[in-house]
Design a protein that fits this description.
Shape: globular
Number of domains: 1
Distance between the termini: 16 Å
Structural class: mainly alpha
Helix content: over 70%
Number of helices: 6
Largest sheet: none
Order of helices and strands: HHHHHH
Keywords: Membrane, Transmembrane, Transmembrane helix
Radius of gyration: 16 Å
Length: about 170
């Protein structure tokens, strides 16, 4: 019953999430809204991990299932980061950079295994590039990087997940 939504949900949710992240970094989304989004995403990841476990036991699907499980904790860290003052920057950084970098691991594995894995390798490179843009911009005080970095990651991850959905 949930197989089709599990296959088609990510190609819609990934670009939505990164558009939301870029908008948040531009100041267009409140912290409370971001907190709610993190809670909703954590619940969705937990449901996805539980319902998808049976179908994701081998090969690259197992790698992606593991990343989803780790991503649940990364997302939960972000939700907690919106509710505490102590260590909030650390927890929010774990959420942001975790989701920028975790899929790069999956894309590298998928690209290595796929017959024509160029889009996945490019996706991994885009994740790293976007995280780098965000980090450099954060430390250098370049506001545009806070939007550009997530945008690069969003394009890279969307390309990979759309290709994967089309192949399944």
């Amino acid at each position: 019953m949930l197989r089709r939504p599990r296959e088609l949900g990510p190609p819609m949710l990934v670009p939505l999430a990164w558009t939301f992240a870029a908008a948040a970094n531009a100041g267009a989304v409140s912290d409370h809204t971001l907190f709610i989004a993190h809670v909703v995403m954590a619940v969705m990841l937990a449901v996805f991990a539980v319902t998808g476990r049976r179908d994701m036991r081998e090969g690259t699907l197992r790698v992606w299932w593991s990343l989803i499980v780790v991503g649940f904790f990364v997302t939960a860290a972000g939700a907690v980061g919106f509710q505490v003052e102590t260590a909030s920057d650390l927890l929010l950084g774990v959420a942001l950079y975790g989701w920028m970098l975790l899929p790069a691991v999956g894309f590298l594995d998928t690209g290595r295994r796929a017959t024509d894995g160029g889009v996945y390798l490019a996706g991994a490179a885009g994740c790293l590039l976007g995280a780098g843009i965000t980090a450099v911009g954060t430390f250098a005080g370049v506001d545009l990087a806070a939007v550009a970095g997530p945008a690069v990651v969003g394009v890279a991850q969307t390309a990979g997940i759309v290709d994967a959905a089309a192949r399944s």
